[in-house]
Write a structure and sequence with these properties.
With 339 residues, the protein is of the alpha+beta class. The chain has 7 helices and 17 strands. It has one domain (22-338): 4-Layer Sandwich (Deoxyribonuclease I, Chain A).
Amino acid sequence: MKRVNLLIFGLLTVTFLCAQPARNKAVIGFYNVENLFDTINDPNKDDEQFLPDGENRWNSQRYEAKLKSLSKVISEMAMLDGGLVVLGVSEVENEQVLLDLVATELLAPYRLSVCHHESPDRRGVDVAFLYDASRFKILSTKAFPTIVPNNPDFITRDQWLMTGILDGTDTLDIVVNHWPSKSGGEQRSLPGRLAAGQLGRQIADSVLQSRPNAKFIYMGDLNDNPTSKCILAEMGTKTKPEKLTGYDLYNPMWKMFRDGLGSYAYRDSWEMLDNIIVSGGLVNAAPGTYGFRSANIFRKGFMFTKTGSYMDYPYRTFAGGNYQGGYSDHLPVYIVLTK
């Protein structure tokens, strides 16, 4: 009887171990979801466009359709090899819209948690994280405001740092942000993005100096291409993964943009506004720990407009002021980490 019990215990142990998912790969992504607003008036936000009687006639039906559309994209990202562990998002009105999003039929099975930060943005949109709490445990969060010299009235989204443990082993420092747009023209808006790039470098340096070779990830809609001064010079990003030190930042999106790829279509050309930048410590990770493997743009046929003047552009919610009922004007981007 004792031998039988031991045999049963051994079989149950093997079965349990085989049933556990392999924890040697993880997906980290970013998605500008294009104006995810609810239908409720917030007197502290400029949300008048997105009200039932507003310019966009933003009612419950359109809000629910938006949630359903986004959930389709994100649920398919969740099925990527390795599983979606963290997704940074931008252009969300508040925490509640994200809670509504993760509760949709397609996303509910993944039990994603929300880490949201209320920014002082004039339009009322924020940045946040969705994450798999079964694999990523938050240790701390911190907001960093972007300050433009000689312009005390300048206001934009804060840069939001989340530090946590991936699969109980690796500490990751992840920043999500949405840099100032080019509204008003390239040169007029440039100081805001220069300041954002400088702040990004400062955040990276503060992390990397406190923990050399830290696994640092900087993601977001930077409203600039990887070749811009704001990213190359102000953040000091490298364009090749070779010979990186623990204090270097590498932008894998640079090569994709050089090859004609992008996450945002404008005037019949692709721009790589959505970037994920990683530290040398993540590229040159120690054996047996998580390290950077690849960067990608998430593209599926259903995410593109099929006809009309916006054919082959990302299928967005509004185009030319007209309701389309699509997903977003941006494509998500993501990186794969492997042990």
